[in-house]
Specification:
Layout: E1 6-14, E2 18-22, E3 28-32, E4 53-62, E5 65-69, H1 75-99, H2 103-111, H3 117-126, H4 130-134, H5 137-147, E6 154-164, H6 169-176, E7 184-190, E8 193-200, H7 203-223, E9 226-232
Parallel strand pairs: 3-5
Antiparallel strand pairs: 1-2, 1-4, 2-3, 4-5, 6-8, 6-9, 7-8
Helix pairs in contact: 1-2, 1-5, 6-7
Length: 234
């Protein structure tokens, strides 16, 4: 666990000034009231309730203790962490059902090299030969089906503002948005304002792809003597 990481925690105790949570590694973390939500909080339990799970950002680590933030996690990040948690639970159940009495032994072998089963299955998607190293031959096909099970697509959105002062501004804007990418959809909102939607299978990889797309659009805007500005649609 490092500063800046997003983690799923369980609320243990709530006071007016500090909320105590249990982190995934079993250690304690704290969230001061100013990191629960912006502004004055009238009722703390509107945001944190004992035994409920919350997605937190690690601000700093001091020994075995971590200082966390709730308000610095946006909706997309929260969704990503919760989805990953649900997928991890599903993977653990599937491994237990398929591997049966060998589950603990095989799981231990995998966790010697990977932090979690989820991390292992993610690696297998790009390096299927890993199955042969960790999974018995007669179980490989069943595990492979679980790992490659179709996942729901994610959508990333950006608000785009483009201002072209040339007489052929509309033509220039069309050139800027001509990306030849079936996963990208651009919608006209109002004069100079557009919504860009990117559909991806993996949220983390999608964020990297979005950065590349925005850099390309900004480059094209400069080439066409247009002003370009993008903000994440939260």
């Amino acid at each position: 666990m490092n500063e800046g990481d997003l983690i799923l925690c369980k609320v243990k105790e709530v006071t007016n000034t500090i909320t105590f949570v249990e982190m995934p590694n079993g250690q304690e973390g704290t969230i001061i009231s100013s990191e629960i939500a912006a502004g004055r909080i009238k009722l703390m339990r509107q945001y944190v309730v004992p035994n409920k799970q919350v997605v937190c950002k690690v601000l700093r680590i001091e020994g075995n203790h971590a200082h966390l933030s709730l308000r610095r996690v946006n909706s997309k990040e929260k969704k990503e962490v919760l989805q990953k948690f649900k997928q991890s639970q599903s993977i653990n159940v599937s491994f237990k059902q398929i591997l049966k009495e060998d589950e603990e032994k095989i799981k231990k072998k995998i966790l010697n090299d990977f932090d979690t089963l989820y991390e292992f299955t993610t690696e297998v998607r790009t390096a299927p030969e890993l199955l042969q190293k960790y999974i018995p031959k007669e179980k490989q096909t069943a595990i492979e089906k679980i790992i490659n099970k179709k996942r729901k697509n994610e959508q990333l959105r950006q608000n785009i503002k483009i201002k072209c002062l040339e007489d052929d501004g509309l033509t220039r804007i069309k050139k800027i948005f001509d990306l030849k990418n079936d996963d990208v959809k651009v919608t006209y909102i109002s004069a100079g304002n557009f919504s860009l939607k990117l559909t991806v299978k993996d949220f983390k990889q999608g964020k990297k792809e979005m950065v590349d797309i925005l850099e390309e659009l900004e480059k094209r805007a400069k080439e066409n003597n247009c002003e370009f500005h993008a903000t994440e649609d939260k």
